[in-house]
Every structure is written in structure tokens, then in C-alpha cells.
Amino acid sequence: xxxxxxxxxxxxxxxxxxxxxxxxxxxxxxxxxxxxxxxxxxxxxxxxxxxxxxxxxxxxxxxxxxxxxxxxxxxxxxxxxxxxxxxxxxxxxxxxxxxxxxxxxxxxxxxxxxxxxxxxxxxxxxxxxxxxxxxxxxxxxxxxxxxxxxxxxxxxxxxxxxxxxxxxxxxxxxxxxxxxxxxxxxxxxxxxxxxxxxxxxxxxxxxxxxxxxxxxxxxxxxxxxxxxxxxxxxxxxxxxxxxxxxxxxxxxxxxxxxxxxxxxxxxxxxxxxxxxxxxxxxxxxxxxxxxxxxxxxxxxxxxxxxxxxxxxxxxxxxxxxxxxxxxxxxxxxxxxxxxxxxxxxxxxxxxxxxxxxxxxxxxxxxxxxxxxxxxxxxxxxxxxxxxxxxxxxxxxxxxxxxxxxxxxxxxxxxxxxxxxxxxxxxxxxxxxxxxxxxxxxxxxxxxxxxxxxxxxxxxxxxxxxxxxxxxxxxxxxxxxxxxxxxxxxxxxxxxxxxxxxxxxxxxxxxxxxxxxxxxxxxxxxxxxxxxxxxxxxxxxxxxxxxxxxxxxxxxxxxxxxxxxxxxxxxxxx
Length: 573
Ligand code: F6P
Fold this sequence. Notes:
The protein is of the alpha/beta class. The protein has 25 helices and 13 strands. The protein has helices at 2-8, 11-16, 33-45, 50-56, 60-63, 82-94, 97-105, 120-123, 139-158, 182-190, 209-216, 236-253, 259-262, 270-276, 302-308, 310-329, 336-350, 368-380, 412-417, 437-456, 460-469, 476-485, 504-525, 536-551, 560-572; strands at 65-68, 71-74, 132-133, 136-137, 171-175, 200-204, 224-229, 263-267, 283-285, 355-360, 398-400, 424-429, 494-499. The strands form three sheets. Strands 1-2-13-12-10-11 form a six-stranded mixed sheet, sandwiched between helices. A five-stranded parallel sheet has the order 6-5-7-8-9, sandwiched between helices. It is globular and about 80 Å long. The relative contact order is 0.13. 6-O-phosphono-beta-D-fructofuranose binds next to loops.
């Protein structure tokens, strides 16, 4: 079936075609009667403008917003009516979302291809109720590692832990990539106001030596502590950087005994850690039931705990736990991650929106969109379903973004007037961590104005009237042309998250909302959100190519382009 489909049409057609008789598979959402109802409903909604929906219903904001602790989630600027929501909720129910959510929390092996449970929620289970995996409670292990993180972070932060020459640690360098880098990097930046300025936290991820060289250049080996973070402890980039960091340290400290005072490891692979030469006592373990991109709550969070202290790290866990309880217990129509997920599906599958923007109006959240980019795209970038069949609808969108207001001066033009529909999330705090209120008021004015502009747009008549009011000398066709260029269709959807202050707890809640949104979408799309087979092929081929570069000899036939590039590199290096 798989080959047949791919022969007949190209991939883009396969994933964008809602109904064909060849690609019917029983468990896919587009086989559900409610999907057909949504297709029909969409053909009506495609012509409804949000401007009119707001005009017709003064209670729209109140009805389509939810408050969870200090987080306001406003989803009223979406192309939806009560009927849309009812159909989407029916889709969720028909996809067995509630049962599948419970299976995840209960430790069932829902990551089918890797035969693993998905229990990142146990890492932040602050109520400490037993979580059974194959009949065994995982909480004692979770709490043991949290305790060891507390002891270690206190020692380092207080200066009780010293480097090999007896000096206090001033710089922590996390070496990891993907899920072993993006989360801690994002949170350490996000919670800068909570960090200790005498203990700086740095990140090295890229195998490009520039990353290592430039990060280490200002640092002193005597006062630097490395956290080598890798779930597998085999990742090429991380291992290469860790070996070079070891050389850098030993070039000054000479004695291999120094490694025990300057290197700790965070991994599920204790054997490989020992082989690298890191003392068993300096290993912070986690488990195969924690996916890399969901591992921020595990010992992968150690650089965060070193930066902000263990109490603040545990507040972040508490914020996430709060959202777990909400996701498990709130009725679907009041459930924020469920609504986030379903709204995304509405645009992705019915409006054919291929991209999704995450727009924090908060410079501290500089790395939020790249963190969520991995979370979402590695989880739901799949075209094979849980039964091994190709999907016949689009799955995960392209996630991108950067902090407002910078993005406004870069890619918002396309969001306002481009041909693509790009739904978006706006996020901001009511209170800034800094003093100048005029900056913050300006920032928030832009946040609110952008969501308004995207929604309301500007008609050609309004644009023309504005030009005339401004005293334009243009008339006739020239005036019409300029007014047309200044027209905004509007009707571009956005969600807004407005919270009181970006605290560790609120940040934990926000991240967990997105994690569960991804779960909701993966469940409806009937795909495995917890493997990442798509990263393997490139790794495999890179290994062969690296050997060919080393031996200066092409050991296997490649296509003409690959061969041309390889020969050019070998000849000129
Ligand atoms: O190659 C992708 C990936 O496996 C991610 O899923 C993961 O977060 C990253 O590599 C790093 O893996 P590890 O923590 O095992 O080094």
C-alpha cells in the first residue's frame, strides 16, 4: 500500500489529500464521520470573518477564554463558532483522546516503535502518588535523583564543591544537543532574573568547533564544571565536544584525576559514561521512559538547577504538575492543551495551514520557539501512522518564531499580507522583571495591537479613506492601486497567553501546556509522537561520508551531486 501510494502521487499530494479510495485506513481520523462534518463546516467557515463574529457577539472574549491560575488563555481570535468547537471536541472524543491520555499517565507503553512508556509527567509528580511501570513504582527513583541533584547543586552553589585546584566553580558548561540542550538553554535564559550572577551557565551543542572554542575562550579550566548531557551517551556531536573539553581541561590541569572534579554526566547509559572516564558518583541518571525532547524535568535540568537553585527548579516542576492535573481532569471544552491542539488541527487539516508561529513578547523567552520547534516537529513530523500505514492528511506544521517586537520587523509582513495562513501564539507577562514601565507598556501594546491587526485587518475602503484623510494627491486608478496595496485581509487567527510574571512556576506550566498540545495532536493524527526515526538516515550517511573524507577515498557510489561535493571538499581541504 505504501509503495503504491508513493508511486501514484508525490508526497505533498499524499499528505494533502483528505480522501482517496486507496489510502483508507481504519484508525485514521479522516475516516471518522465527524471529519466529513468538519470538511463541510470548513467550507462555510472559510467565508466567515472574525470581525463579524466579534461584532455579533459581545460575549465572545468571555466565552472563549480560560484562566488557569495566573495564566489567561484567550482563544477568541480564532475562526471558530460554537459549532466548530463542538465538532472538534467530537473529533477528540472519537479519537479516544481521554483514554489515550490516561494510558500515558498510567505508564502504558504508548511509544510502540520503541516499546517504551512515556512518563515525563512522573518526573514532576509533586503530589508523589505512585506511578507504576510494569507494576513497579517509579517515584522512589525519581525522588532519589532529585535529592542527589539538590545535594550537588547546593555544594556547587555554596562553594563547598571546588575544582581540582581548590577554587570555587564560577562557570558551568552544558555539553549536549537537541533535547539535552534546547530545554536547559531556553529555561536558563528565561529565568535569568533568578540566576546567581557568580555562577554562569553556558551551552555548547554544535559539532562546529567554533561553538566550543568561543564558549571556552573566556573561561578558566580551574573554575569550570562540565555537564555532559546525553540520553544515549553516543551522540556524535556531544561526544566529540566532550572529548575536546576534556583535552582543554587537561591541557592546563595535567592530571586525569582532575576529571572527577570538573565533569559530571547526565545520561541513561551508565556504561558509556564510565567508558568516557566520568566517576560513577558524578552521574545523574534518568530513564528510557523519558523522551529526549521531554527531558527538561529530569536530571537533564541539572544546569537549570545549578543556575536558579533547586527550590526554583522544583517550582518549575510544580507549575508543570499543575497543568498535568488540569489536562487530566478539566472537561475537554475547558481544557487548555486540548483546545490548543484542536485549534491547530482545525487550521492544519482544514485550512491547510503549513506553518505555526510562536511569538513570545519577552526577550527572556528568546529560545522558546526553537525549543518548541524540536518538541513539536520531532514529535509530530510523521507520515506513517501507528499501524504502519501512510497518513492521508497533513500532520505537524512548521514551527517557527522569535520574540516580539523583533519578529515584527522581519517576517510579520508575510503573516499580515502573505498568501499563507499562519496561525500564531502570542505570549507575554503583565509584570516585567525590569524597572522601566515605558518599555513594558510599549512591548505589550505591540503584542495586543498585532493580535488585533491580524484579526481585524483593513478593508480597501478604509485604506482609501485613510489616504484621503492624509491629504493624498492621488486619484482614480493610482489611488485604487495604493489602497489595494494597503489592504489587510485580516481574519488571521491567534491565541494569546497573558500571565502575571514569568516565574519558574509559570514557565513550567507554559511548557507543559505545549507538551500536552503536541500529545493531543499526535493522538488525533494517530501517529507516534515519541519516536524520531527521521533523524537516523542522515546520521548513518554522515558516518560513511566521514570515513570517506578521512581516507580520501569514496568507498561507495553516490549520486553525482553528493560525489561532486565530496570530491570538491577532499581536493580543497
Ligand atoms: O537526533 C535526534 C536526537 O535523538 C533527539 O531526539 C535528542 O534530543 C538528541 O538527538 C540528543 O540525543 P542524546 O540526548 O541521546 O544525546
